[in-house]
Specification:
By secondary structure, this protein is of the alpha+beta class. It has one domain. It has one helix and five strands. The protein is globular, with a radius of gyration of 12 Å. The structure holds zinc ion. Zinc ion (ZN) binds next to loops.
C-alpha cells in the first residue's frame, strides 16, 4: 500500500506513505504501536477502523486476522 491521502470521518488527510498503514485488532494495538515506533521512529496517529473511509484498506488485523478495529498511520502536519 502506498497511499498519500486517506479520507477519515469525511475529511481528507495527507499521510506519510513511507510510514505505512497498519490495521489491528484491540489485542494487537500496543504491540503494533511499539513496532511502528521502532520501525519508523515516529509515534503513529490512531483512528478507529470504522472512521477510515477506504475500500482498499483491509478490515482485518494484519497480525492475527481478527476483526480490525484500529488503524495506525502517520498524518502529515497532524492539524486535523
Ligand atoms: Zn490481532
Amino acid at each position: 500500500m502506498n497511499q498519500t491521502q486517506l479520507r477519515i470521518q469525511g475529511k481528507d488527510y495527507d499521510i506519510y506513505p513511507e510510514h505505512g498503514i497498519r490495521v489491528v485488532c484491540m489485542e494487537h494495538v500496543e504491540q503494533e504501536l511499539d513496532e511502528y515506533v521502532d520501525k519508523y521512529e515516529v509515534a503513529p496517529d490512531t483512528f478507529a477502523r470504522a472512521d477510515v473511509e477506504d475500500a482498499a484498506l483491509t478490515d482485518t488485523c494484519m497480525v492475527c486476522g481478527a476483526e480490525g478495529k484500529i488503524v495506525l498511520l502517520h498524518v502529515k502536519g497532524n492539524q486535523g
